[in-house]
Amino acid sequence: MMEPDWYTWPRVTTDDDQGREWIHPVPPRFYLHQDKETKMWCVIDRTWDLGITKEYKRKHDCIRGFRSRMKTQLRLPLHKMQ
């Protein structure tokens, strides 16, 4: 049985603002999730299907919290995480 097209990797996405094309050799590891009841945001690590950030009211704050956490873990300057 052949896999559906959306499961094949690498994938390419396009940056509409700058016209760049990005190649993703493997599926992304982290994704944003909003709880349907509380409307709170967190970042999920799909490796374990667990939240790795606290819950935030605003998506922007959740992304900032994730970037801060990853900067600490990877010891990268914040501008390198953009």
Spell out the blueprint of helices and strands:
Blueprint: E1 11-15, E2 20-24, E3 30-34, E4 41-45, E5 50-51, H1 59-74
Antiparallel strand pairs: 1-2, 3-4, 4-5
Offer a quick outline of the entry.
The protein has 82 residues and is of the alpha+beta class. The chain is 20% helix and 27% strand. It has a domain at 28-82: Double Stranded RNA Binding Domain, CATH 3.30.160.
Return residue spans where pLDDT drops below 50 for at least 5 consecutive residues.
Answer: none
The order of strands across the largest sheet is: 3-4-5
Cα shape: globular
Number of strands: 5
At CATH's second level, what is the architecture of the domain at 28-82?
A: 2-Layer Sandwich
Give the number of helices.
1
| Oligomeric state of shown chains | single chain
The percentage helix is: 10-25%
Mean pLDDT: 83
So what's the CATH class of the domain at 28-82? Alpha Beta
Rg over CA atoms: 15 Å
Question: Structural class of the helices, strands and pairings?
Answer: alpha+beta
CATH topology descriptor of the domain at 28-82: Double Stranded RNA Binding Domain
Major sheet, described briefly?
3 strands, antiparallel
Q: What is the rounded distance between the termini?
A: 39 Å
State which percent range the strand residues make up. 25-35%
Could you please describe the fold and organization of this structure?
There is one protein chain. With 82 residues, the chain is of the alpha+beta class. It has a domain at 28-82: Double Stranded RNA Binding Domain (2-Layer Sandwich), CATH 3.30.160. It is built from one helix and five strands.
